[in-house]
Structure formats: structure tokens, C-alpha cells
Amino acid sequence: MSESLSTDVLIVGGGVAGLWLNARLRRLGYSTLLVDKGVLGGGQSVKSQGIIHGGTKYALSGALTGASEAIADMPRRWREALAGNGELDLAGVRLLSDAHYLWSPGTLTGNLTSFFASKAVRSRVGQVKGGELPPALQDPRFKGRVYRLSELVLDVPSLIQRLAELSGPGLLKAERIEPLQENGELSGLMVDGRSIRAQRVVLTAGAGNAELLNALGLAQPAMQKRPLHMVIVKAPTLKPLYAHCLGGGSKPRITVTSHPAADGEWVWYLGGDLAEASGVARDEASQIAAAKKELAELVPWIDLSAAKWATLRIDRAEPAQSALARPDNAFVAEQGRLLVGWPTKLALSPDFSDRVEAALLRDGIQPQPLTALPELPRPAITGPFWEGLV
Ligand code: FAD
Description:
Elements: E1 4-12, H1 16-27, E2 32-36, H2 44-47, E3 51-52, H3 69-72, H4 74-82, E4 95-97, E5 100-104, H5 110-117, H6 119-122, E6 125-128, E7 145-149, E8 152-154, H7 156-165, E9 171-173, E10 177-182, E11 185-191, E12 194-203, H8 209-215, E13 223-235, E14 243-246, E15 252-260, E16 266-271, H9 277-281, H10 284-298, E17 308-319, E18 331-335, E19 338-342, H11 349-362
Parallel strand pairs: 1-2, 1-12, 2-9, 5-14, 12-19
Antiparallel strand pairs: 3-8, 4-8, 5-7, 6-7, 10-11, 11-12, 13-16, 13-17, 14-15, 15-16, 18-19
Helix pairs in contact: 1-7, 1-11
The structure holds flavin-adenine dinucleotide.
């Protein structure tokens, strides 16, 4: 096969970043082709906790600075999109929770005192008690304080489904992706024998960006992976909870999001400190034992005797950076016709698109007259990953 196609922007990687960018560019009148070698949304995106952070938690480490501006605006932008009157029409995407909670199981720690000393935080955070507590914490034995953040939690499979609907016909399942060079410059990509020319090529393949850069003979931008060992628990006794449980340090002791299972039960997806370095070092059985111990201490009133448990290893892929830096903004690097990036958070996908759009505008890239696409093999779309695990 030696089909020859052309498009304004060729996007490689259909996680939330690539799909969001694709839908935004189509709205602006650009022709696009999005190529994925796996399942749309099936990388980090579906395995994320789906929280649309506004950056408030960074104040825990004193890092809520001017650099947090992009993330601070994300909840508003997503809310408008979900209401059908934003930059994309995401009406119909399932909202799991209108709020996300910070939960301190003990008395206020030093950390929290400085946290609430910040004016930026006080205006965004309100304490909740009694019947306002998340259902899973409404028990007479509950001790501690809970603060409500105006940050959404989304059902990622329904988000990916909607973004795929907004993608139009230009979705292509790929096996082999190679550079297409003309006059010594990148002019597009060879995808399974099809030559695809584009005004711009954008790599949004998450952890796959490193391999793609390698295929293009590029060493920059460097990528880092942060491995996580998440825990999944499903039980008839679980009620929804979307909360960061604070420990002594700047990182949450445990993060909990709740996801609907097909049989009507709730699945809790646990991350935070539990899933980081020491959790990564544990095998599956020890990691489940550690999670059981945490839940027995934190929510002893929940009967988990009939629970089903599993773990999931997943890497966060980000631009290489200092361990101290917090990803408050999406990252895009440019080299000629090529743009490469990571949103660094699902929530920052709109910021990622802004940065690519700004580069197109700066370079005077205009939509070219459309040529109809032939029938193309389409990638599959992710479903709820937890269904196969518990
Ligand atoms: P991905 O979702 O990884 O998508 C990459 C796509 O590229 C995939 O479809 C893959 O098939 C494709 N691909 C890979 N290699 C190639 C290749 N060589 N050729 C073609 N296609 C390729 N962020 C938040 O904002 N809120 C959260 O609550 C949150 N929780 C998280 C929890 C966990 C456990 C993890 C791991 C991350 C979390 N994140 C969260 C971060 C968020 O998931 C990611 O920043 C975001 O999903 C990255 O999206 P992406 O589109 O760049 O990458």
C-alpha cells in the first residue's frame, strides 16, 4: 500500500491531550489526522483519577505561586465545556463529583496551618461537617476535618468516548510510524506505508513520546517516568469518596476516587503516597496488605470483608524536570515542523492545546483546502479499565 495523504496537523497519540487538541483544531477549521498505535484513552488517561485540579493542593508544599495560573483556571474551563458552552462541547460526559475533598484524619498539622494561611487557598476551600460530609465519611466514628474544593471529578471513559466523537473521520490505527523526510527536513510521517504530509506534526503519545523521538533521531526533549503502584478495591459496602487524605508531609497519604462498576457497586481507586516509591517496591500481595491496613485505620466503619482487590502499575510520563518542580502547566517543545509535549495532568489538556494553537498562530499556519479522507482503520476506544481487574 502506498497511499499518500495530507493534513494540516498530524497528531500522534490519542490520549486526552491528543484528542482534546484534535477536537479544538477541528473547531478552528484545521484538518487533522490522529494516529494511535494502541487504544484511544487507554494509556495514562483512563488510568488517571479524573480529578480536574485547580492547583490548590500545591499550596500544601508552599508551591502555589504565579506559575500555578494555568492550572487555577482549569476547573472553570472544564465546567463550561461540560455545560456545553465552552471551548468544546462535552455535554453528556459523566461528572462523578462536583467537588473534591481534602481530608485531615487528625488535628491540623503544621503543614495545614501554613496552607490555610494562604489567602489564595482560603478563598477556594470550605470546611464541611455532618450531612455535608462525603457519604463514605458519614459515620459517628469519623474523626478529623474535611475541606471541600471546587474541583471536579470526571468519568474518564465517557470523556474519551465524547472526544472520539468530536474527532471526525481522521482517526487512524497505526502499527509502524517512521519519519517522512523531504529535502532533509521532516515533512510528515510514514504510517504503515501511507505517507502523510502535514504542516505540523504533534507528538502527544504520553510515555510513547520517547520511542517516537528516538525513531525521529531526536534526544530532546527528555522524558521522565514516575512509576506508581495503584490499588483497586470493589465492595458492596463502598460509597463514593473523592478525597485526598493528608498525612504529615506535603504529599497526600492516600488519594481516593470512586468509579462506577457495571453491576452497580463502587470501585475505589487508591493512589497518593501509598502508590509512590515504597508502594512501587512492594509486590501485589504486600501492596494490597498495605492498602487494607490504611483503610482499616482511616475508615474502620467500612466492612471490607467481601471486597475484591487488585493493583495496577502505571507510569506517569512527563518532561524531565527537577524533583522539586511541580507541573502546573502543560509542556510543549518545538523543533521545526515538530511539536512534542505532555499535558502533565489530564486537567491541563486545554492548556496544552493553547500552547500548540499559539505556535500555529505565531507561525502563520492556516487551514488549507480540505481533501476528503479515504476509509481508514480506526483505533478502538477505551472502556473502564477496572472492569477487567476486580
Ligand atoms: P496518554 O493518556 O498516556 O495517551 C497516550 C496515547 O498515545 C495512548 O492512546 C497510546 O496508545 C498512544 N501511543 C503511545 N505510544 C505511541 C506510539 N509510539 N505511536 C502512536 N501512539 C502511541 N491528571 C489529572 O489531571 N488528574 C488526575 O486525577 C490524575 N490522576 C492520575 C493518576 C494516575 C495513576 C496517573 C498515572 C496519572 C494521573 N494523572 C492525572 C495524569 C494524567 O493521567 C496524564 O497527564 C494524562 O492522561 C496524559 O495524557 P496523554 O494524552 O499525554 O497520554
